[in-house]
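Here's what a typical entry looks like (Intraflagellar transport 88 homolog):
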Amino acid sequence: MFQEALNTYQLILNNKMFTNAGCLKVNMGNIYLKLKNYPKALKYYRMALDQISDEHKEMRTKIMQNIGMVFVCMGQYTDAITSFEQIMSNSPNIKAGYNLTLCYYAIGDRERMKKAFQELISVPLCIDDEDKYIPSNDDPTSNLITEAIKNDKLHQMERDRKSMAEKFIMTTAKLIAPAIETSFATGFDWCVEMVKSSQYVELANDLEINKAITFLRQKDINQAVKTLKTFEKKDTRVKSTAATNLSFIYFLEKDFDQADRFADLAMNADRYNPAALTNKGNIVFVKQEYEKAAEFFKEALRNDSMCTEALYNLGLTYKRMNHVEEGLDCFIKLHNILRNSTQVMYQVASLYELKENYPEAIEWLMKVISVTPTDPHVLAKLGQLFDIDGDKSQAFQYYSESFRYLPSNITVIEWLGAHYIETQFCEKAIQYFERATLIQPNQVKWQLMVASCYRRSGNYQKALETYKDIHHKFPENIECLRFLVRLCTDMGLKEVQEYATKLKKVEKMKEIKEQVGLQRFVALTKKYIYKYIIPSCFDHSLISQSSVWLPALTIHPSSPCSPAEDASYVDPLGPQAERPRTGATKRIEDDEFGDDELGDDLLPE
């Protein structure tokens, strides 16, 4: 209720009875700042500053900081710099130093950026030494006092202040490093050197780690590795962090031996490092040692129950081990932490699919779609599950949506084409099979399906042209030649003899190839028996003196080791659906595209 508050403050200011009401103008300035009325906010801050004496030094500093922030919001960086410089000269603090550096960065003043950063790391924190909170064994009373103040509000405030200062310094260094020197690395090195000579010396190592991570973001892997390897002889905590990052880099590069070495180094430096344990688990997972991988992920979770990477990978491990219930438990726990993670929700759906609980799988995929409604793979998966569940209309809807966002998914194209054929709309299936032909031009089956769709929809001329085009591209395709012979016969075309001759030649060539292949297969099998089976069954001396008779090999045509193929015609679209009858009288009609064998009268003498 900003306007009501402003009216009330104004009434108080107009009342002469309240002699110290001037400080309320700070509140009015704050309200105008929230309303983004920057000129009025600036006006009230300045009026408040004029009415507060120099004795209230801290209040004046806060008001001046607000004035500087209003200028920043208005884009007047030079005026903001004036306010922050005045604060840093009279009463320096971390926030003012941070904002001053940002303003210099905004106007691109390289030298003043360096100067402001040096002033920032020189601001005294005014907190006690941490050694004060370490209990001594000599004095029990002192130990009790130390224990009492270790986690009191004052110590918590000191920790927060230090944490805020470190965050500001780290952010500033990462921001200005590329701007203060000719290269990012040189600028970061300058920042590190400045920090090493300040009261924040322990931040230098963290800055170096951040430098390596920035190299990673810039895809400069070699520089990142080089930087991280300098920490191998540093203190334990930093060594563990560096080794963890190195292990991760080598893992991504699929150098699993190096990744394993640095994962072990990170674990030896700090056994309670959950990231190191997760990396170790990943390496073992790649080696398909799933039981061991699960143990490492569990240990990482014992050290940090919020380690989402370990929990996710543990779920994947259970899924790979076919422990569906345990995997579901992991991913549902993770979903409670990462509510909008599509990866987690998809994994839950995948596990319900493994359980053949399709309604639950569909429900979780619906949640994925609510977050990423244009993901074509998830839409296709929904179509597949609805199809399995028997809901063809919903399956068609989601397959169509998937096709709209990704019109090159051959599985989706094939399903949509088949759906239109099943519902006897062959002319609509043509566009899908034509697209499949564009995607896989060397796959003859898509072109045959296009031709079959034209034939089934009654467009025989277009079907004939399509078959001729297929024959031109694939002259040895028997199925295409058979259709050409049938169509030419039915349409009374003279080309029938030409295509019949070609068909006979191609079938003869195929028969010869099959016989040659079969003979070669039999010869190789006999050679294998002589070499490996007979020596183990008979005495070698007997083999040299007598002949061994082998039984004739009989190979079934459907055997997976047989080179022969069934050459009989099969419609690529399947048997044509019977149309509804309109009268009770039965008519016996010849199927103009039946599967009867070709007569000798169609073949030349």
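The mean pLDDT is 82.

More examples are in the samples folder.
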